Amino acid sequence: MTGRLNKNGKYCLDMMLKWSWRFLVGTALLFVFYVLTQIFLFTSFSIPSDSMCPLLQPGDNVLVNKCYAGARLFSLEDAIDHKPLHIRRMPGTSDILHNDVVIFNFPYPERWDSIGFDVMLYYAKRCIALPGDTLEIKNGHYRVSGYGGSLGNIESQDELARIMSTEQGVQWLIKQNCYYAYPFDSLLNWNIKELGPLYIPRAGDQIHLEHSSVVLYRQLIEWEQGAKLTEQKGCYQLGGNEITNYTFQKNYYFMGGDKTENSRDSRYWGLLPEEYIVGKVWRIWKSIDKSTGTTRWERIWKKIG
């Protein structure tokens, strides 16, 4: 009797160890699969504000396709410590196109005249202009030279134009600190009603340095070179070396929110480096009404774009 019990007990112990090992291995594999999926394929983000309404609403949780533009690889430790960051991108399945809704790291987390990186600060906006485009805003409406389609939320742009059609409306926007626009230069005097033409740089483009080009692209040049661009007696110096022309090393984008009267987008802070793009918004997988806490079932699995 004792021998049989010992044998049965040993058998049970062996089975427990065997299944425990299988459980641990299975859990580890699932965790590795989850991490790899988050890095290379899809990730999830929660929409906190109404700047992309009505397409995206506060409380929406979206799946972001990283394969579209290509997954990014960088040192998370360097990003957290705010050290110089080298971002490499895997090959993507497609280029970012006009009107794509994308998630990106906000490039000006500390100050709007200097590009930075906050690994935890993300925005969702619509791509209005691509590298190589020339953008203008006319009466609050986006225009890209050579592009015949509509850009952004036309109904919202119409409403913004209506607001700006009266002096009272303009003064209201000024009081809200959302009328004057990038680059906030008194000579250009751009605003969200009339802006541009603004050329969106792509890698390999060369510009001649003068007042307007330096005002528009200073932070991009300083970010690419890690050095200050200064002016002295009409001459420009980059890191102490005099230059007259500059060749861009990176691609840039102009991003806009669908709710144009209430969106902190490229009209205010400027251009987005391609390296900061996480991916394209694909679908809404969860949506919670923040005022009631109830699930908005009609929005579940809604495709974006």
UniProtKB/TrEMBL annotation:
GO terms for molecular function: serine-type endopeptidase activity; signal peptidase activity. Keywords: Hydrolase, Membrane, Protease, Transmembrane, Transmembrane helix. It is found in: Membrane. It catalyses: Cleavage of hydrophobic, N-terminal signal or leader sequences from secreted and periplasmic proteins. The active site is at 51, 125. Its EC number is 3.4.21.89. The keyword Signal does not apply. Pfam families: Peptidase_S26. The chain crosses the membrane at residues 21-45. One of its GO terms (biological process) is signal peptide processing. One of its GO terms (cellular component) is membrane. Belongs to the peptidase S26 family. This is Signal peptidase I.
